[in-house]
Amino acid sequence: MQDKQLNITNDTDPFKLFCQWLQKATLVENGEANAMVLATSSAKGKVNSRVVLLKKHSPQSFVFFTNYSSQKAQEINKNPYAAILFYWQKLGRQVRISGTVTRTTSEEADEYFATRVQKAQIGAWSSKQSQTLGSREYLEEKTKILEQKFAGKNIPRPEFWGGFSIKPQRYEFWQAANSSRLHDRFICEKNNSNKFAWQRLFP
Length: 203
Ligand SMILES: Cc1cc2nc3c(=O)[nH]c(=O)nc-3n(C[C@H](O)[C@H](O)[C@H](O)COP(=O)(O)O)c2cc1C
Prior knowledge:
alpha+beta, Pnp Oxidase, Chain A, about 30% helix, binds flavin mononucleotide
């Protein structure tokens, strides 16, 4: 847990700060430090959230992979805006990032799909993610059939599976100050000249 104050200046690069925090979390946290809560909303403003894994990140792009027919994908198709949230319990830190969402290129999706273990590749084929499933046995049977079909072969990426990239427009960094309870909270948003400008918020 932190008890140091968070030092932000106008020169702080939010992406670099995120990378430092993620790197530290990867060393310290027990679970997957790249797990993030992804919030999307329907065109009518109904909000949904779920955990996904951050698989790639750059100053322009925070990428996760999923099924393009899933509920989250359908919501992104209708309202291409999303928020992601990282919570690192041991560090007492939270990061919120939001921005517009686009699909990754098929090359990017192919490249990542090829790195997945075979069971995860078959899982992508067998799961009609977010649709009703009559029984677990059906999924097990479908998986077995696919395992036989792909035995000894390179498994291609299903067209209905790929990546989404969130372009960060707003970051928020929150850090606990355990003894004083005067937690630090900073946001930065892109201003008119496309530069990030920082502000401290009441925690
Ligand atoms: C730790 C963890 C990591 C997950 N990672 C992913 C992921 O990277 N992609 C994904 O599609 N679902 C992932 N899931 C499953 C999602 O939380 C969710 O159940 C699924 O994507 C369906 O969501 P939807 O119906 O809102 O589209 C993960 C779940 C957990 C608990």
